[in-house]
Design brief:
Layout (H helix, E strand, L loop, with lengths): L1 H18 L19 H5 L5 H16 L6 H17 L5 H8 L1
Helix pairs in contact: 4-5
């Protein structure tokens, strides 16, 4: 039951982030080729870094068909990903996630 509670909290947080991310009117659509996002890009994202990390975790979970949320494993993987990105800023974030997830 705790896992369901954590998932519901994450979904609620995501909805709150999208609701409070600023005005949505008059914004131009943004297209991002995720395989081209570099570690440097990620490290320079001050406002969107957490959302980007969540996106990549979700993307990889979907790609792998994972249906469980394991908070400690994701926390550990995030730490390794960020540490690797500091030392390898030109590497693509997707390739780093594939190494450490």
């Amino acid at each position: 039951m705790q896992t369901k509670s954590k998932i519901l909290r994450l979904v609620a947080m995501g909805l709150m982030l999208s609701a409070f991310s600023g005005p949505t009117f008059a914004q131009e659509p943004v297209t991002v080729e995720i395989e081209k996002v570099t570690c440097r890009d990620l490290l320079l994202m001050f406002d969107d870094q957490e959302a980007t990390l969540v996106f990549f975790h979700g993307f990889l979970s979907g790609k792998k068909g994972e249906m469980l949320y394991k908070d400690q494993e994701l926390t550990d993987a995030t730490d390794k990903i960020l540490e690797h990105c500091v030392d390898n800023p030109a590497e693509s974030v997707l390739s780093v996630f594939e190494k450490f997830r």
